[in-house]
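re the bet — no i am not wrong, look at it urself. input seq straight from the record:
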Amino acid sequence: MSKHNSLKRQGGATGKRSVMKRFERVKLMKERGEWQEGKSAIGLPKTKAES
């Protein structure tokens, strides 16, 4: 079964993501100095990417 044309995304997957993956959030928090070593990576706060 195929997707209906109205449900397909135009231009493929080339949009700006609004959500970061866990490893991206940890990396950004380390760069900002907000990460504490030994802290669990589960339940991280939402982090806005720098534009």
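see?? The two ends are 39 Å apart (CA to CA). told u. also The mean pLDDT is 79. so pay up
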